[in-house]
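If your schedule permits, I should be very grateful for your opinion on a structural question. I would ask you to consider whether the tokens describe a fold that such a sequence might reasonably adopt. Thank you for your consideration; the sequence and its tokens are set out here.
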Amino acid sequence: MKFCKKYEEYMKAQGKKKLPGVGFKKLKKILKRCTKQPRHLDAALLTDLNNHTCPQHCSVCDGTFFPSLLEEMSAVVGFFNARARRLLQMHLSSGLSRCAIWFKAKLKGNHIKLTQEGRDLVTYAIINAIAMRKILKKYDKIHYSKQGQAFKSQAHSKHIEILQSPWLCELMAFHINLRASNSTSSRNSTALFEGCSLLLNDGKPSLCCELFDSVKLDIDLTCAICLETLFDPVSLACGHMFCYICACKAASVSVVDGLKAASHDQKCAICREERVYEAPVRLEELHILLRRSCPEYWAERRKAEKRERVKQTKEHWESQCRLFTGI
């Protein structure tokens, strides 16, 4: 079965949920209407076209194909992030907060229910990621260009690449934590991922997951600032992950003020993108996973972090007292 048909059947089965998706058939029709498709080209001309953009005045390139795909990608990623955030909040919440979430969502709150909802979310994310990849590949094939790949890079910079979502990383950690904490029930439930695991290579952890249709995720869990395993990990708007205290140092703010106090011109330590500290995501499930998997490192790092936080807190309040007294 071709992927287009498989995708349409999947979205049709989700019809009652009214999930946003990629208009696969609509985008393929747009490509077919393009009258500037070069045909029967010799090798020399094909090489020349590969080094240029699509032909001028192409109806596809002039604002039909890419704006439609951009809008659909934004809707898919927004929906996935919101649902994943709600699911993980339910799993991590406690007391009255947990009860309120359960009653609002009309869920029982057991492990099997959480696992099933997580699996559905992961399937939704992956199949839409594959749909986006295939339609962009078809665009490049028709136009003998590399604009589809360029658009994929732009989508990543706009934070609408679904496989780069920090919430997907959190769902992976959630699955492993759930499997470890309730191994008996997890045997009877459907796994979120096939072959999802935390790997330790020379003491350096990484999340690895093999998905269908040759999609593979391999997420390095080393902080690019301190070059150690992530501790109290946080994901910035650009998708890069750091230790929370390292991210605060990079943003020139104290842990007391927090990342949201960072100025707009502060840049990510890896990609140098600005305005990435405005909505950081605390990766609590990943933190729990690393605490369980690296207990000795976690205990040592916790002591060091505690000393640093006490030091910064003391300096913060000393400076506030000096400002108040005018010294």
